[in-house]
């Protein structure tokens, strides 16, 4: 029988020098997850002994984490904008920088009962957060991946049951029509760019969620699909480092949009591009 504090220390030692930023904290979180408690609860149980089966499962999770598996897949959950989302290997683990896209969407001058589409919803992080923050909005969440949609459905039941989930490629989703805002964090990593992703992300997260030909292929398709938007509607997208300028240039050249803005994330990387559909084009 091992005590909580000894197990956490054993886990911490196994994680030191691995891909993990805060080994002690991560070890504590994994054990807290198995014990069904929070980190604070774990502290309170510091001196308690841990059942051998749980100790074995903990050490197995630590070994998988040390080998690079994302912590969120090990615990099956990730917090996003203050809410807990179930996640697994069918979806991208929602990233903190995507919370900025949510903040941007919430600040746009939209009607009270805005119709909003999230393209490539994954776990549902963006769509369900918007629906939970703005209960009067009518939100549609779409994805090409049936696995992602199945997971998002469970999250919707817990967080925002009114959200409609649609299995569709991006053009088909936009053609549903009538949206005041289309928001998307699409795949934007160039598969040929070996340096763009850590080996752990590459090995564990779904390729459909990560990769787009040349980096910009899906973003460019979204720009063109904006043809289906009514004048005055917004398209707000997350982009990869170094992609904002190229996307804005293409949007200007295409002539569909009359208002463009770019904002940076906390690391100073130009991360979000907002476009407003103009009256011309189509
Ligand atoms: C980067 S993930 C974003 C997931 C989630 N929105 C988030 O921010 O955490 C991109 C998502 O887009 C989906 N996807 C990729 N290509 C697509 C396409 N052509 N049409 C619709 N969805 C697509 C993937 O299945 C994946 O779930």
Give a topology summary:
Elements: E1 2-3, H1 4-15, H2 23-35, H3 39-44, E2 49-50, H4 52-66, H5 71-75, E3 77-80, E4 83-86, H6 98-107, E5 115-119, H7 125-133, E6 138-143, H8 146-159, E7 164-167, H9 170-174, E8 181-184, H10 199-204, H11 207-210, H12 217-225, E9 234-238, H13 244-254, E10 257-264, E11 270-277
Parallel strand pairs: 5-6, 5-8, 6-7, 8-9
Antiparallel strand pairs: 1-2, 3-4, 9-11, 10-11
Helix pairs in contact: 1-2, 1-4, 2-4, 6-7, 7-8, 12-13
The structure holds S-adenosylmethionine.
| Largest sheet report | 7 strands, mixed
Distance between the termini: 69 Å
Principal-axis shape: elongated
* Number of strand elements: 11
Give the overall average pLDDT. Answer: 95
Give a list of the ligands. Answer: S-adenosylmethionine
Q: SSE order, as H and E?
A: EHHHEHHEEHEHEHEHEHHHEHEE
- CATH topology of the largest domain: the name is Rossmann fold
Identify the CATH homologous superfamily of the largest domain.
Answer: Vaccinia Virus protein VP39
List unreliable stretches of 5+ residues.
Answer: none
Overall tally of structural domains? 2
Q: Level of helix content?
A: 40-55%
Query: How many helical stretches?
Result: 13
Strand order of the largest sheet: 7-6-5-8-9-11-10
Which structural class best describes the helix and strand composition? alpha/beta
CATH class of the largest domain: Alpha Beta
CATH architecture of the largest domain: 3-Layer(aba) Sandwich
What is the rounded Rg? 21 Å
